[in-house]
Give the backbone structure.
Amino acid sequence: SESERLRLFSMLPLDPRQAASYLNGAHATVAAAELLRIAAERGLAGFTASPGGLDILARIDLLSSPPESLTEVFQRVVNAVQQLYAADPRRETDGASDMDAVVRAAERLASASLVCRLPSIELPEDKLALPEKALSARLIATPTLTERALARLLNSQLFIDVGSYQVKVYPDELVPFLAARRLAGLVQSPEQAHRLVQNFAWTAATGEQGIYRQYLPLMGWLSTLNSHCRREILEREPQALAFFGDLRHHEVPLDAAVTALTQSIRRLVEQGDRLGRGYFTLTSENFWQAGPVRLRTTLAALFDEYGHHHWAREALLDIAAASRC
């Protein structure tokens, strides 16, 4: 009967006014409008759409201690979620005393989700069940975590409901960062890097080569976090590092950053390349990370050489505006 039907409800995303109102009420010492602006500029706009996400933003000191790199931004998010998870008194009874194992499980889930192109994750009742069009969290993240600890992780601020009994890593911008951390930890040599990157790369009969556009963010972070992968990816797809990695990160050498940015702009002019390859629309954080102080001389030289070309000029001006150069 009508009265016996199960109804499922979910909260609509908060709009900017509602997000500011929540911050003013729950975190009165935070400058709400400024925090929301910075979050949007640093790739964390997804966290502004829910109370749990706003709680994370309020904990990572974006205003009082501005991060120096995009890597630091996302690492602060991971640390904040880790701290909230660790503070849960139920954690010990769940068998999740090792917080590094919790983070590793999140990285495994993000990596599998991105590589397999399956955003939805669930914890099916049957232990060996394989959900249709979703990943089984149990098969990926255990025995890294116990069943109860895994269920609690899937209910943390790193995940959001996407359907009945299904979640996905949240926000979307965090997925390639977590996935790349997982893959970067597996690569210990140039040979391993070559074999890994080949799975995401293409080579044309005429000699051109690149990265499949769906994996540009993953390869960007992987080239940031692993030196062996950086050399492989930079040779094939410089825009992965230049616009989807983190040129502000201290582990990215200056020569690699200069090469990535220079080759990316040159390809726009000389080969008709497009940033994001028509698959991604670059936003503020993509341009901000590409404009550290150490690259200002390079940016000026590139503008002098290629500023006449509309795609190159637009990209360079977006970098300057996001970096406030």
